[in-house]
Amino acid sequence: MDEKNSRIKELVNILNKASKAYYQESTEIMSNYEYDRLYDELSALEKETGIILSNSPTVNVGYEVLSRLPKETHESPMLSLDKTKEVSALQEFLGNKKGIISWKLDGLTVVLTYNDGELKKAVTRGNGIVGEVITNNAKVFKNIPLKIAYKGELIIRGEAVINYSDFKKINDEITEIESKYKNPRNLCSGSVRQLNNEITSKRNVHFYAFALIKAENVDFKNSIDCQFQWLRQQGFDVVEHYITDTHSIEERVRFFEDKIRTFELPSDGLVIMYDDIEYGNSLGTTSKFPRNGIAFKWQDETAITKLIRIEWSPSRTGLINPVAVFEPVELEGTTVSRASVHNISIMEELKLGIGDEIEVYKANMIIPQIAANKTESGNIQIPEKCPVCGGKTQIQNINDAKTLYCTNTECQAKKIKLYTHFVSRDAMNIDGLSEETLEKFIDSGYIHEFADIYKLDRYEDEIVNAKGFGRKSYDNLLESVEKSRNTNVVRLLYSLGILNVGLANAKLICKYFNYDIIKIRTASMEELTDIEGVGEVIAKTFIDYFKSDKNNQTFDNLLKELNLEKMNAHTEDAVLDGKVFVITGKVSHFANRNALKEKIEELGGKVTGSVSANTDYLINNDAASNSTKNKKAKELGVNIITEEGFLEIIS
C-alpha cells in the first residue's frame, strides 16, 4: 500500500508540473501520449486505493490564471467532460437516447454574455472557477457578432481557435526556433489573453459556440439541436454537429476521423451530449464531470520504426533543438520520417538511443510525435560542441526543461538566423537576401555586421560573377538594399532581433518613448515595465541588449547607413486616433497595402481584416465594386473611401 501511495504522490507531482508548463508557460516537458498514459495510471490507482489527493489533476480543473487581466468567478463551475477512446462506451452512454455529436475543438474556451442585443462580457475558462475578462479582445475575433437580434440575457460557451493555415503563416514569420509556437492552441491562448487587442486582431481568432447556458423566454423544444439552430440565426458560428444514436454513432465517428485529416481547425476529439436537455440536466454531476456528456479522444494511429539519428538544430539565440530522424512510416495517410523531441528532458525521459525501436504517432492526427521507446538504450550523446561552429555547448534549465545552448557569440548559425530576421519583411524588408545567399556572403567575408549589408557594392565583381547570381540579380539586390535605407524606428528596433521583442512590442516601446531613439536605447526597467504589454522578461532582455558595448557599436554603425522617418506619437496620432479601417483592392499611392496599413497605425488608427459595425472606413479605390467587403460596408453604413479620400483626411 505504501508503494502505491508513493506512486500516487509521484504521478500527481509529475502531471501537475507538466500541466503548469503547458498551460502557464507554453512549454512541453512531455508528450500528450505520455501525459494520458500517466493520467490513466493515476486514475486506476485512485480507484484501487480510494485515495485522491487534494491537488490531484483528476479532481482539480486547470491552474490559477496568471496575468494582469481582470479576473472573474464563473456563476457555476465549468467542469471537464469524462473521456473515452472506445466507440462502445459512446453506445453505452447513449442507450436509447438521441445525442448530438460535434468536434471537440482544441483552443481556448470563452464564455460570452450579451444584454440588450450587445456583447457585454467575455471571460476565459481559466481554472473552471475563475477566468480572465477578455471582452475587448473578443470584440476583435473575426466572426463574433457584436450585436444580435435577441434582447434578453444570453450566455454561451464556445472555443476560440486559430486555424492551421494562419498558425503556419504566423510561425513562418518567426525566425528563431524557440520562439515558434508548438501548436495552434498555444498561439490562440497567447493571442486571446493579450493586454493589447491589436495583437489579438492580427491573429485571426475565430469563435465557435458549443453550449447555450442561458437565454430567457426562448422555447428550444428541449433540444440542443434547436439551440444550435437558434444561435446560427443570431449570427454565431456553431461547432459542426449532427444528431446521432447508438446505431449511427460508429459511422459518425468514422466520418469525423476521415475529415480531420484535412480539417483546418485544431481538434483533439469529439463531444457527445444528450439532445434531451432536461434529461441530461437531471443526471447531475460527479465531483469533476457533468453526466450529460462525454468526450471521445482519438485512437492515435501508431507505427513502429527505428531511430536513425538525432539532428541538433541551432537557432539565432543559440538554442539547439533535438530532432528525431527515423525510418519512414505511413501515418494518417502521409509518410513521416522526422519528429521534434522539443528538449533534452523529453529525450532523456524517452531514453532515446540510435537504433532503438520507437513508436510514433501524430498528435491530433497532425503533428508527428514519439509515443514510446521499446528499446530504451539511452545511448544518445549530447553534443559538447555546436554542430555549426564547433563552439562549446551548455545545458540550461528553462521552465523545468533541460535545453542545450551554443555559448559561442560568433556562432555562424546565430549570425545567419539573425541576418535572416534582419532582412525579413516586417524588419528591413530587403528582397534578394535569402538565408542561403546570406550564408554565402557571410562565409565570403562580405558581411560581419548589419551595416555591411549597405556596403555590398564593395564586392560588386565578386557577387556578379558568383554562382547563381549575375548582373540582373545584383542590380535588383542593390536596389532593394538602397530602398531599405529609408525606414522607421519601429522596423529598426524589431530588425535587431532582441530576444522576446516582437513587432508588436517594438511598436509599443517606440510609441511610449515618442519614437526618440536615444530614449529608447537608454530605457530603464521601470520605464519599460510601465508600458502595458511589456513585462519584466521583455524589459530585461531589452536592457541587456543595450548594455553591451558591442551591440551599441553595431547599432551606431547601422544608424549611419539609414534615413529614419520622423515619427511623433503626440502630434500625429490624434489625426486617426480611435478610427478603424479596412483595406481592400489594389493601391496606387502607397507601395502596397501593408505600407498603407503602417501609415494608418502610425497616425493612431487601427486596421482590421473584415468590415463590422465598428469599422469607420473601408478604403477601396473601386468604390462601385460588388465585393463582399463593399456589400457589407453598404449594409452597415460604413464610409467607403478611395486612397485620395484617405489622403484628404490625414492632411
What is this entry, summarized?
This protein has 651 residues and is of the alpha+beta class. It has six domains: 48 residues, Helix Hairpins, CATH 1.10.287.610; 227 residues, D-amino Acid Aminotransferase, Chain A, domain 1, CATH 3.30.470.30; 105 residues, Beta Barrel (OB fold (Dihydrolipoamide Acetyltransferase, E2P)); 73 residues, 5' to 3' exonuclease, C-terminal subdomain (DNA polymerase, domain 1); 76 residues, DNA polymerase, domain 1 (Orthogonal Bundle); 78 residues, 3-Layer(aba) Sandwich (Rossmann fold), CATH 3.40.50.10190.
How does this structure look, described?
Strand 23, helix 23 and strand 24 (639-641) form a beta-alpha-beta unit. The chain has 651 residues and is an alpha+beta fold. Strands 12, 13, 14, 15, 16, 17 and 18 form a 7-stranded antiparallel beta sheet that branches. Strands 2-11-10-3-9 form a 5-stranded mixed beta sheet. Strands 5-4-7-8 form a 4-stranded antiparallel beta sheet. The protein has 6 domains: 2-49, Helix hairpin bin (Helix Hairpins), CATH 1.10.287; 71-297, DNA ligase/mRNA capping enzyme (D-amino Acid Aminotransferase, Chain A, domain 1, 2-Layer Sandwich), CATH 3.30.470; 302-406, Beta Barrel (OB fold (Dihydrolipoamide Acetyltransferase, E2P)); 412-484, 5' to 3' exonuclease, C-terminal subdomain (DNA polymerase, domain 1, Orthogonal Bundle), CATH 1.10.150.20; 489-564, DNA polymerase, domain 1, CATH 1.10.150; 573-650, BRCT domain (Rossmann fold), CATH 3.40.50. It contains 24 helices and 24 strands.
